[in-house]
Amino acid sequence: MKSAVRFLEPFMEKKGGATAKGTMVLATVKGDVHDIGKNLVDIILTNNGYKVLNLGIKQSIDAILQAYNENGADAIGMSGLLVKSTLIMRENLELMNERGIKVPVVLGGAALTRKYVEDDLKSIYKGQLYYARDAFAGLHTMDQLVGETGSADTQKRADAPGLEAGEDVEDLIGEEAKLGIRKIARPKRNGNGDTTHTSRSNVSRDVPIPSAPFFGSRVVENVSLADVFSFINETALFKGQWQFKQGRMPLEEYQALVRQKVRPIYQELKERSVREKLLDPKLVYGYFQCQSEGNDLIVYDEGRELRFTFPRQPAGKHLCLADFFAAKDSGKMDVVAFHLVTVGRRASEYSHELFKSDNYSDYLYFHGLSVESAEALAEFWHRRIREELGIAGQDSPELTRLFKQEYQGSRYSFGYPACPRLEDQEKLFTLLDPSRIGVELSEEFQLEPEQSTSAIIVHHPEAKYFSIE
Fold this sequence. Notes:
Elements: H1 4-8, E1 23-28, H2 36-46, E2 51-54, H3 61-71, E3 75-79, H4 83-98, E4 105-108, H5 114-121, E5 129-131, H6 135-146, H7 152-159, E6 216-220, H8 225-229, H9 234-241, H10 251-275, E7 282-293, E8 296-301, E9 304-309, E10 334-342, H11 345-356, H12 360-389, H13 399-402, E11 410-412, H14 425-432, E12 440-441, E13 447-448, E14 452-458
Parallel strand pairs: 1-2, 1-3, 3-4, 4-5
Antiparallel strand pairs: 6-7, 7-8, 7-10, 8-9, 10-14, 11-14, 12-13
Helix pairs in contact: 2-6, 6-7, 11-12
């Protein structure tokens, strides 16, 4: 069986084309700033004879439908990364029903699963609806819609069996791993599915509370790129971002591929990023006194109180992030840390320049490096926070094991199952003021530039990633 990269590489260079076989309107949904998945669909469809109207990121359903009507497209493709985007997709489909629009729709994105699309969304949309786990599945779907056979390799790739969404276990790495087992955060429900109940979990209430080195927030600039690169998750970069997956390739052959092809690309990109100042790592972080009350975490800052309300597992252990902090009625005052990191706007601008100039391979490689560099910066400073709190003694000495949460003091990003409310980023901005490092909040509460990430750091030794549903 061919490796994933051998499928991908032939599609990554711009090709001239004859008359288009069909047309797709393609967009990242409203409020979502992520575009790599959408752009890969654009590249592969375009290089296989299709016309793609790539509207970009943060597109409203009205803009998408206007482009569809003006161009007589054969299908609409909607993409999004986080759980909030899956709910926006649902709203878009409901609005299309109201308007009597039945155009074929293809949905894709990290938070989507085939089960969610086929069991939940297909039942509400009156037109044809398809799930595409990757760009090749999107190509296969378009071939079906316009009556094209498609290549044998593409067919094989699109139909390949696997886990929940037809993926290898090696796909569940890096930032996507925070999605747990790929379950969608659905709206609040009553009855057995109620995530607002307050039946507390049995996590320990008697844990030492670390001393914060300061209270309030601080800006850190001029972070060494060498330090950032030392925390790159190479598995997430090579297999997840760049799609150099082993698949059924013999281990020795895969290791040779990485050594001879992947690492030279990696080394050249790191050197270029330093030489041309393409990445500008900086961050803002802080420590705050806090207490929990029910499902709420109350954060105290300069005489004001900010409440973060977290969902609780409706069954099982009844876990909720608030449980990992001292209860208000205990009389204890706990401590919580927040951080927000970025590698700067130049990274987004340079990625866009590469894509617009049809340098698709360079675009894929640099975009992947920039995203994983932001994640590496978060890992690097996360360790610094554990050190400052005095809990780094539980850290694994192996970096790869740190990526698997072998430490005390987990970090949770807003938009993921344990804290799915992206709206809470607004409160984080109140505490940290990330405008000081050039990071803004979109109308749908996502971070701009895209190569940024934020988190709440929970010192409790039992705190690990968990899913709500």
